[in-house]
């Protein structure tokens, strides 16, 4: 991006961060809000993980936090960044018109509950290095993306019943557990994650939703490193949401008709990753057969990752 006006560059980011219905607050105190948790609160594969299975703290994020939308609609919310009237898309277009080149990553967790969506936005202000995992992800096909996009979920605070169902930390490859749709433009990529595509995830969301006003959860997104040259893993970005009030969700109605899904919606939720994570219940070290049958085959390592 052009660097002649650093303050202006940061101002558009701050406008998006503060523009949602849920406020951006300090991570240590963010009731009914969202924040950026410390990267070191997540454990990722270290430089020699393939030989010693040692994980290290996540460290700095590759992307900057950009915003959070807690919204609901008359139907399942999808392809939100293809809507030229959406606040984040409008901000992207305005930056491009100024000669800047931000690239936005959006992770849309579609909840299987009343068409709620929790959407997390991150941004890169610099060119993505050629050949990097991020570059491979953007240029790769859906099969590659489904095999690499990883979610780490930490339950920071919550009732015993939710901790028992989810586990205090859960790790999964999203595309192996849930239906993911990738929507890419010249300045963004959006991942629509259908949590309702898993029977187990659907059940967990309905359980957790009853306690949502008491929960504090950290979610981190990363591209899994599977070869030695790709290690150590790096976090793309992470969000903490705390004690969300369903009543604070904004109402989203697509004003643009450029794309509107007509298929029957099965809402999804930010707990989608958690469904698959059920195989991580408590200290269980093997995936449950039922979960494997519901969500597809899980690698044994994924079931054990949170225990390392």
TrEMBL record:
Basic and acidic residues bias (residue ranges): 298-308
Pfam families: EDR2_C
Annotated Polar residues bias: 279-297
Domain Protein ENHANCED DISEASE RESISTANCE 2 C-terminal: 34-244
InterPro entries tied to this protein: EDR2-like, EDR2_C
Region annotation (Disordered) ranges: 279-308
Protein name: Lipid binding protein
Organism of origin: Zea mays
Classification lineage: Eukaryota, Viridiplantae, Streptophyta, Embryophyta, Tracheophyta
